[in-house]
Amino acid sequence: MWPWRPQLLVETGESPERPVSIPNIITLIRILLVPVIVWAIASGQMKIAFGIFVIAGVSDAVDGFLAKRFNMASELGALLDPLADKALLVSIYVALGIWGAFPRWIVILVVSRDIMIVGAVIISWLFGKPMPMKPLMVSKLNTGAQVALAALVLAALGFNFSATPYELILMAGVTILTLLSVAFYMVEWVRHMSTIELSR
């Protein structure tokens, strides 16, 4: 491992300097790209939207590599990274749904899944029984399918080619995996919450 680890130091008041890792900065930049890609889709600039989507995907891989290679993983990064990914995906699906590139039902399905999971996490936190955020394999597959579908549709709109039948295949995959991930997550959540002892 190299003795040099890239990091940016910031000073806050009289407290000692705290390192702000480059992976966290990259993740924050990815979050800032969300309104830009929504603007591009709303404006019909699909090539720009596709380009931003690719940049966001590359940045996700880069910050993950840096965090592991230079031992710069942090609790903040563990929270920000999935937040950035979900904010980007949900925004793209909603924007493409409004544009008419996605049927409304799949947009509702994708958004509702994330709302249900966030709601479950908040409820467990309110009961003082925070649920460990360990993504299930089916959730990882679901995210991969969502990314592939969004990339395919953006590319097809940007470069004017037909995505059929691959778009339909990926859409079916997203639908099945989304339903499965909700089911598995809710089973885990109910099992986790059942250990709470309610006081009378």
Give a quick precis of the structure.
The chain is 72% helix and 4% strand. It is mainly α and 200 residues long.
What does this protein look like?
The chain is mostly helical. It has a single domain (19-193), classed as Up-down Bundle (Four Helix Bundle (Hemerythrin (Met), subunit A)). It is 72% helix and 4% strand. The protein contains 6 helices and 2 strands, in the order E-E-H-H-H-H-H-H. It has helices spanning 22-42, 46-69, 75-99, 104-126, 137-159, 166-193, and strands spanning 7-10, 18-21. The protein has a two-stranded antiparallel sheet. Strand 1 (7-10) and strand 2 form a beta hairpin. Helix 2 (46-69) runs antiparallel to helix 5, helix 3 packs antiparallel against helix 4 and helix 4 (104-126) packs parallel to helix 6 (166-193). It is globular, with a radius of gyration of 19 Å.
What is the CATH topology assignment?
Answer: Four Helix Bundle (Hemerythrin (Met), subunit A)
Q: Which CATH class is shown?
A: Mainly Alpha
Instruction: Indicate the low-confidence ranges by residue numbers.
Output: 1-17
Fraction of residues in helix:
over 70%
Strand content: under 5%
Order of helices and strands: EEHHHHHH
Major sheet characteristics:
2 strands, antiparallel
Oligomeric form of this entry? single chain
CATH superfamily, by name, is CDP-alcohol phosphotransferase transmembrane (TM) domain
Global mean pLDDT: 85
Tell me the structural class.
mainly alpha
SS field, number of helical segments: 6
Q: Radius of gyration over alpha carbons?
A: 19 Å
Named CATH architecture: Up-down Bundle
Give the overall shape: globular
Going across the biggest sheet, name each strand in turn: 1-2
Number of domains: 1
The end-to-end distance, rounded to whole angstroms, is 55 Å
Number of E-state strands: 2
